[in-house]
Amino acid sequence: MAFTGTGKIWMNGKFVEWKDANIHIASHVIHYGSGVFEGARCYSTPKGSACFRLDEHLVRLINSAKIYRMAYALDFDGWRDAVLETIRVNDMKACYIRPLIYRGYETLGVNPLGNPVDAAIMVWEWGAYLGAEALEQGVDMKVSSWARMAPNTLPAMAKSTANYANSALIKMEALLDGYSEGIALDVGGLVSEGSGQNIFIVQNGTLITPPVGASILAGITRDSVMTLARDHGYNVIEQAIPREALYVADEVFVVGTAAEVTPIRTIDKITIGSGHRGPITAALQKAFFEVINGDVPDEHGWLTYVYPHEELLRAHTPAHGVGARH
């Protein structure tokens, strides 16, 4: 999604105007990809603006920084408060949330330890990542010629900026070849994930998804869909998936903070199932959107409301409205 170039960005505890949120060209992150980040969403619900699984995203951010030895002087509660305040300062009702921890400007060289560890939080409007029509009609994907990193090369469990150079290669190849997205295999030739999405296949009513050991990012939307699937009585298995299983699956869909729950209609120009969104994909998509839109009780405690005081006022104020928020 294109930026509007307006609003405020949180940088090391201070809010700066969007146009002034700059770093030095010699910052270590630019040269060596030494950064970790998160992507979360805030949705507009009938009860107010709510972040989806914000706590889990922030835990993963902190853990990613730990893996890369990037200690930052903000604990979990500090991060949580900073994200919520950034949304409030920008008066966003629904937005994409991007916290980032990165090595800044001091020295250059492969050794990153002499550089400061800086942080920022951005929020901006973002609609359906693969297009609104994709949620119903599905998308066309290809198996990429680019594989995911081998174990013990780059840590797939960390959501690091460096890992997404691989994702960009997968995405560009797919787009230039006429597809919406690519599916990467792992070093053993088994299914891993998309450029930024986890993948599920449906076979005989069972959901199957690659395990964490397949060089995937342990997605929070992935975990949410697995939980919802079990809630609805579906069997869910994490196991290795050979490439050819994609072609003969009854249904295939991808999930992620950006992609949400998106069906796949073809892979390598082979029609998946009927070529339309399958019934289990549709059921899980419906269950997912009911949760994030606040249409059903939040039984798992996944929603964090951004404007609690405003919601309290709204609940006790006549229909003509409430005063300005301070």
Summarize it.
The protein is an alpha+beta fold and 326 residues long.
Search tags:
D-amino Acid Aminotransferase, Chain A, domain 1, D-amino Acid Aminotransferase, Chain A, domain 2, 9-stranded mixed beta sheet, 8-stranded antiparallel beta sheet, 9 helices, 17 strands
Describe the structure.
By secondary structure, this protein is α+β, with helices and mostly antiparallel strands. The protein folds into two domains: about 10-125, 2-Layer Sandwich (D-amino Acid Aminotransferase, Chain A, domain 1); about 135-290, D-amino Acid Aminotransferase, subunit A, domain 2 (D-amino Acid Aminotransferase, Chain A, domain 2). It contains nine helices and 17 strands. The strands form two sheets. Strands 8, 9, 10, 11, 12, 13, 14, 15 and 16 form a nine-stranded mixed beta sheet that branches. The chain is globular, with a radius of gyration of 20 Å.
> Compute the gyration radius: what is it?
20 Å
- Beta-strand content estimate: 25-35%
> Which parts are unreliable, with pLDDT below 50 for 5 consecutive residues or more?
312-326
Q: Which fold name corresponds to the CATH topology of the largest domain?
A: D-amino Acid Aminotransferase, Chain A, domain 2
Given the C-alpha coordinates, what overall shape results?
globular
Oligomer class:
single chain
Please write out the topology.
Layout: E1 8-11, E2 14-17, H1 28-32, E3 35-37, E4 40-45, E5 48-52, H2 54-67, H3 76-89, E6 95-103, E7 117-124, H4 134-137, E8 139-143, H5 163-176, E9 181-185, E10 191-194, E11 198-203, E12 206-209, H6 220-231, E13 235-238, H7 243-248, E14 251-256, E15 260-267, E16 270-271, H8 279-292, E17 303-305, H9 308-315
Parallel strand pairs: 8-9, 8-15, 12-13
Antiparallel strand pairs: 1-2, 1-7, 3-6, 4-5, 4-6, 5-17, 6-7, 9-10, 11-12, 11-14, 14-15, 15-16
